[in-house]
Design goal:
It is globular, with a radius of gyration of 22 Å. β8 and β9 form a beta hairpin. It has two domains: about 10-50, no CATH class; about 55-355, TolB, C-terminal domain (Neuraminidase), CATH 2.120.10. Strands 7, 8, 9, 10 and 11 form a five-stranded antiparallel β-sheet that branches. Strands 12, 13, 14, 15 and 16 form a five-stranded antiparallel β-sheet that branches. It has a four-stranded antiparallel β-sheet with strand order 3-4-5-6, with no helix packed on it. The two termini are about 25 Å apart. It is built from five helices and 25 strands. By secondary structure, it is mainly beta. The model is unreliable at about 360-365 and about 370-380 (pLDDT under 50). It has helices at about 10-20, 25-30, 35-40, 45-55, 290-295, and strands at about 60-70, 70-75, 100-105, 110-115, 120, 130-135, 145-150, 160-170, 175-180, 185-190, 190-195, 200, 210, 215-220, 225-230, 235-240, 245-250, 260-265, 265-275, 280-290, 305-310, 315-320, 325-330, 335-340, 350-355.
């Protein structure tokens, strides 16, 4: 009776082991240096696809996209050897006018192009682009469009786009329109409407997915959230327990459910929306975080703090305390200064969380991450 092959010589078992390596940009290039058989395995397009899918719900925060007068650009947040250079995720647009960066979710970037009335769904890692005509009820020139893009569990090849837009109904009310596009059917669904008090508007922050709903922050005459329930295909407005003097963002609450992160001076407050046995919902305050010690090396403590963006998969908030961007991981409370730029208050930072498996040539060449140092090589 022949004995079974050692685990690392069984290609099927080895594939399952390597799939579970950390989803960092340097992982597969480093793995390819072990030996020829490993290099052939991790350079196979089928394996790379499986690697991305296996880690799709725990992706690293690679960087963020911003939209300014120069167009749409990407800034990396990771350090070498996992830093993906800014030029790797570049998008050539005819000109910056008429484009709006709506957000990033599930490794996809959503861009509105108002003049041809199109939505662009772009996967920066694969380079795939999908251009979709606006639904007939939407006009990005008259009223600003907001949206979100997402991929359902197990649907790597299909995505949904949710567009929302506020239009004037009467002097006291606005009417919010919503419509959902499915790449599987290739068309837009029915128009969904709800009235909201005027004046109110969605901010430029990315939508946040919590449970089966997408949320956008509303500002204007009152502070609230606009909720789109993907399962019920319905819109709702949810009041929040903070005022206009607070900078806040939607987030997943600690322990699950809908939450908020609000700033008051140098104090961050975490809130959670609870529902009692009678179905009555209310907000409760949770953890309080003092930011002065975290931010003092980077920021003027007298300058007000504002939230520029939120990375919901990694629980990271992007803050500004003047002329720089600081990111804070809310669980570990680790902070890091990213950059110093002008006109920072006009920019929203759309977190790009995705699995980037750099391409690897047969000779071991790699593409993408700044692989540096002398990784240990195991000879097979």
């Amino acid at each position: 009776m022949s004995s079974a092959a050692p685990p690392l010589e069984d290609e099927n078992l080895l594939s399952e082991i390597l799939l579970r390596l950390p989803p960092l940009p340097s992982t597969l290039p480093r793995t390819s240096l072990v030996c020829k058989s490993w290099r052939l395995l991790v350079s196979d397009p089928g394996f790379i696809h499986r690697f991305r899918e296996h880690h799709r719900h725990s992706p690293p925060l690679l960087g963020y996209f911003i939209h300014d007068s120069r167009g749409i650009s990407y800034e990396p947040t990771m350090d070498p050897p996992d830093r993906v250079p800014a030029g790797r995720f570049s998008l050539r647009l005819d000109h910056s006018y008429g484009f709006s960066l709506l957000g990033c979710q599930h490794g996809l970037v959503l861009i509105s192009h108002d003049l041809p009335r199109q939505i662009l769904v772009w996967d920066p890692v694969t380079g795939d682009q999908h251009r979709i005509a606006f639904p007939p009820w939407f006009d990005g020139i008259k009223n600003q469009i907001h949206g979100g893009v997402l991929r359902a569990a197990g649907e790597a090849d299909h995505f949904q786009v949710v567009l929302v837009q506020a239009t004037i109904w009467d002097k006291q009310h606005l009417q919010v329109l919503a419509c959902v596009y499915s790449s599987e059917t290739g068309g837009w669904g029915d128009l969904i409407l709800t009235p909201i008090p005027a004046p109110a508007y969605c901010t430029g922050l990315s939508a946040v997915l919590v449970g089966n709903s997408l949320y956008w922050r509303l500002a204007g005459c009152f502070c609230a959230l606009l909720e789109f329930d993907l399962e019920r295909q319905s819109l709702a407005v949810i009041r929040v327990p903070v005022g206009e003097e607070n900078s806040f963002t939607v987030m997943r609450a600690e322990g699950g459910g809908l939450g908020l992160l609000s700033l008051s001076g140098l104090t961050a407050q975490l809130w959670k929306r609870n529902t009692d046995c009678d179905g009555v919902a209310s907000w409760g305050m949770g953890r309080t975080i003092q930011l002065d010690k975290l931010l003092s090396p980077y920021s003027d403590e007298t300058a007000p703090l504002f939230i520029l963006g939120f990375a919901d998969e990694n629980n990271v908030v992007f803050l500004t305390g003047g002329d720089g961007v600081i990111m804070v991981q809310l669980e570990s409370l680790q902070s890091k200064q990213l950059c110093r730029i002008d006109n920072i208050f006009d920019q929203h930072h759309h977190a790009f969380e995705s699995v980037y498996a750099a391409g690897i040539g047969i000779g071991g060449e790699h593409d993408g991450a700044e692989l540096v140092g002398n990784p240990q090589v195991i000879v097979c």
